[in-house]
Design brief:
Distance between the termini: 48 Å
Structural class: mainly alpha
Largest sheet: none
Strand content: under 5%
Length: 626
């Protein structure tokens, strides 16, 4: 199967687009039989009904109710349903409003209207519990909930204990305005501790100094810990000094002292401060959470303390210690301390098809474990999938370059398939050329072995020409595109990066100017040839800037080149330990995924897995010299 062709004059697709984009949705009386039979016609029907809600009456309410009943929870009903509920509430059609719901409302606004409707109709069974559930959260609720909350207060349900409970929720949600408002509703004698709780979180260092000077001032421990943690994120050395002063000044239990110590150690480790490891050594491993274990190990790696690495990993919960990354570092520690030879230390992990498994295989002198298994095509299942109404609608939206609506249809129509069905759906999507969704649905199925489907190498000519023009290895350009967008030419990130290799428009403009190539603007980034050409040239510029080390090119491409110098150690550091200490979770994961993808893509292109260790042989140190 291939993606549908573009619309031609007079086609149902063209008629649909014209009506769907019209301000009034077009006139249904003009709809041809072909348009009414078109896969996306229900979307047009739903839009027309929604547009008429400004002049809603009983007849329109009946039509909408019948339409929603007939079409269930299909994606095209969602915006209509929400708009209808808002209209019913605005018109105070409370009986119809309640009849429209099946279960509990899913948003704050709908919940508030639901409570209003029950009050208006006198349906008060269980009302107090439902109103309290709406009130008992850390967010400010819409004003439409005020009638229900006023009822709770009149009926005596908003006790001091419940107010204190909501103050805690507001503090934990960092809704400090709400916390202040609620605190002022408490008796004056009960307010001081909650005022201090808020100030510990908001003023942080300056207020913590006051707590040192006034050791008997009441403050909940959770808020003291959060204030110290938040201060340490920006000022780790100052927070360490305050930690010692608080421990000396205030009556704290051993567990509380350990919790405060970890609250400073964790953000200090993100900044690669040497004091982080000293602080972590002061805290018993038995009280560590997952983040503490992770960053305690990373702090030990940064310091080159292999004995500490081994000690901390040995104390991890079994399920955590069993992850490939910690198995790798445990093996590295055994080799570094002389407790094991490489072949023995890495042999078991080397069987994993993962970033750390590939590293282990290379360190053990073994080939990377790929074990690809192609997916068997089921022709009957493929036909059934292709004929599903949701799939037909998804395919049309994909042809119209509306991936968001196409994805919504797929999720709704195929979400209940078993793993075999999901796998066949991935094959179908790959046939369309929609590789992003094909890869995602294989992951959803938990099927990881079809490396041809998961690493499809599309746009072959554009990739090769771009790589050659910029003199960058083809496998690296593919690895970037696979990691950035799953080969989606229409991808747009939250930050505004566009296209198959996720280039920012400003970066594209600078690269084009520096390279002397034509660039017509941000829309051109959705063209694979343009996007890949600029991406390859940008990679070449980063390679030249960072001394030919792809180890730095990858995080620079993801997080920006100006961040790299701030992440470099003061003394030589093993390159794999440096990767593990990249402070941004997204960038650290990105680098590891890109290297993992490179190994497999090199195999797809050249018949043998790529190698990672040659990229990591040289320790990380400034300055960077090619």
């Amino acid at each position: 199967m291939s993606a549908p062709a573009a619309a031609s004059d007079g086609s149902p697709r063209e008629a649909f687009v014209t009506a769907f984009e019209a301000a009034d949705g077009g006139d249904a009386a003009d709809d041809s039989a072909a348009l009414k039979a078109y896969a996306l016609y229900p979307w047009l029907q739903a839009r027309r009904l929604r547009l008429r809600l400004d002049d809603a009456d009983d007849a329109l309410d009946a039509r909408i109710g019948a339409f929603l009943s007939a079409h269930g929870s299909a994606p095209y009903t969602q915006s209509l349903r929400a708009a209808w509920w808002r209209s019913l509430a605005a018109r105070e059609r409370w009986a119809e409003y309640l009849a429209a719901f099946d279960g509990r409302p899913s948003t704050d606004a709908l919940l508030c209207h639901w409570l209003q409707a029950r009050m208006a109709l006198g349906r008060m069974d269980g009302f107090a519990d439902d109103a309290l559930a709406a009130w008992r959260n850390g967010r400010s609720m819409p004003s439409d909930c005020d009638p229900a909350f006023d009822w709770l207060e009149r009926e005596g349900h908003l006790t001091d204990d419940r107010i204190r409970e909501r103050v805690r929720l507001a503090l934990d949600a960092r809704e400090y305005g709400l916390a202040r408002y609620l605190t002022e509703r408490l008796p004056e004698a009960a307010q001081r501790i909650w005022v201090n709780a808020r100030l510990a979180r908001q003023q942080r260092g300056s207020f913590l100094e006051r707590l040192v000077e006034n050791p008997d001032a009441p403050v909940p421990f959770d808020d003291l810990r959060y204030g110290l943690y938040a201060h340490a994120r920006g000022y780790p050395a100052e927070a360490s000094r305050l930690l010692d002063a608080l421990i000396e000044a205030r009556a704290l239990t051993p567990d509380e002292r350990a919790h405060l110590t970890r609250a400073v150690a964790l953000p200090a480790s993100w900044s690669r401060e040497s004091l982080a490891l000293d602080l972590y050594r002061r805290a018993p491993l038995s009280g560590h959470g997952q983040d503490d274990f992770e960053w305690h190990v990373r702090a030990a790696l940064w310091a080159g303390d292999w004995d500490e690495v081994a000690r901390v990993i040995a104390a991890m919960p079994a399920d955590m210690a069993g992850e490939a990354r910690w198995r790798y570092w445990a093996a590295r520690a055994r080799v570094a301390t002389g407790a094991a030879e490489p072949a023995a230390a890495y042999a078991e992990l080397a069987r994993d098809r993962s970033f750390h498994g590939f590293l282990a295989a290379e360190r053990a002198g073994l080939p990377a474990t790929l074990n690809p298994v192609p997916t068997a095509r089921d022709a009957d299942a493929q036909r059934q999938l292709a004929n599903m109404p949701a799939v037909r609608r998804a395919r049309e939206w994909y042809a119209l370059e509306d991936d968001r609506r196409a994805s919504a249809e797929l999720s709704w129509g195929l979400g209940d398939l078993d793993a075999d069905g999901l796998e066949q759906a991935a094959l179908m999507l790959s046939d369309w050329g929609w590789h992003r969704q094909a890869i995602a649905w294989m992951a959803r199925a938990g099927r990881w072995d079809d490396l041809t489907l998961r690493f499809p190498l599309p746009h072959e000519r554009d990739f090769r020409q771009s790589a050659q023009a910029a003199d960058v290895p083809l496998a690296w350009l593919h690895a970037i595109a696979r990691t950035e967008s799953l080969y989606d030419p229409r991808a747009v990130s939250g930050a505004g990066a566009r296209g198959i290799a996720q280039i920012m428009p400003g970066t594209a403009q600078r690269v084009a100017q520096r390279s002397g190539v034509a660039y017509s603007g941000r829309e051109a980034l959705f063209e694979p040839a343009t996007n890949l050409d600029l991406a390859a040239r940008y990679l070449a510029q980063l390679r030249d800037r960072f001394g030919c080390r792809w180890l730095f090119v990858l995080p620079a491409y993801n997080a920006g080149p100006n961040r790299i110098d701030g992440w470099l150690p003061d003394a030589p550091l093993d390159a794999d330990a440096w990767i593990a200490n990249i402070p941004f979770n997204e960038t650290r994961g990105y680098v590891q995924r890109a290297l993992y993808h490179y190994v497999i893509i090199h195999w797809r292109l050249h018949g043998e897995p790529g190698r990672i260790l040659p990229l990591l042989d040289e320790p990380v140190r400034p300055p960077l010299v090619c």
